[in-house]
Amino acid sequence: MYIEFSKTNKKQQRIIENALWFAKSYLLPKHKIDEIHVESVKRWNYKDGDCYDTDDRSYYIRVRKDMSEDILIKTIFHEFAHIKQSIKKEFGDIFGILSDDSSWISYNDRPYEMDAFKLENEMFDKYAKDGKFKFSIDGKFSL
Fold first, then answer.
1. How many domains does the structure of the chain reveal?
2. Which domain holds residue 81?
3. 43 inside domain
4. Is the residue at 102 inside a domain?
5. HEC assignment per residue over 74-120
6. Rounded to an integer, what distance in angstroms lies between the CA atom of residue 129 and that of residue 4?
7. Contact at 8 Å (CB) between 19 and 49?
8. Residues 69-116 pLDDT 10s
9. What is the C-alpha to C-alpha distance for residues 131 and 118, in angstroms, rounded to an integer?
10. In the prediction, which pLDDT does 131 show?
């Protein structure tokens, strides 16, 4: 799996790369992914991230630039859950669904989002238990 970055600093790249490899081993250990491009976006007020396919087994993830490390990791896990849904075709054409007008269904009530939030939390708990980072007294963590 090749990971490419744009508009990210070295610290973000390290955090994102570790989270992506963890998510890959957790959700898709036997599946091939050619490339994931991750872009950090400024002034993105309404969401933490999104994901879409660019080619067969290649994906593009955008994340908000000003997130804390724990939210960045959770966002990467959430978006990788959508990659898994796409590869395994669990909700049909997940990226086709995501681009459709499904505004009549609340974001948190969409089945593919409910699944992504569940997997995001599972992975985050396992990531913490595996000692990938440690929380400090002020609630921040270090890798």
1. 1
2. 2-132
3. yes
4. yes
5. HHHHHHHHHHHHHHCCECECHHHHHHCCCCCCCHHHCHHHHHHHHHH
6. 28
7. no
8. 999 999 999 999 999 999 998 876 666 555 555 566 777 888 889 999
9. 20
10. 75
